[in-house]
Amino acid sequence: MNQSAMNRERLSVKRTPKGGVILRYARRLRGYTQAESAATYGIEERTLRRWENREFDPKWNDVISLVEDVYLLNILEVIGKINDDNEHND
Hints:
There is one protein chain. The protein is an all-alpha fold and 90 residues long. The protein has helices at residues 3-12, 19-30, 34-41, 45-52, 60-70, 75-89. Helix 2 crosses helix 4 (45-52) and helix 3 (34-41) crosses helix 4 (45-52).
C-alpha cells in the first residue's frame, strides 16, 4: 500500500465520540432538558451537566443506559449520526 492510500485509510477511520458528546446529542435529539433526563435516570442535574460539558467523563454503562433506557435510542445509531454530522461539518 502506498503512502497516499495509507493516509486516505487513516482519514476514513472514525473515532468514537466522548460520552458527554453522545449524551448531549441524544438528549437534544429527543427534546429532553437536562433536568428531565437527570430525574428520569436518578442522578443530579449538575452531574449530567458536568458530563455534557466534558468536565467529567461518564462511565460507559451510564452513557449506554441513558441513551438506550431513557432516550430510547440505539447507542450505535447515535454514534453513527454524530459521525455523519461531523463528516458533513468538516
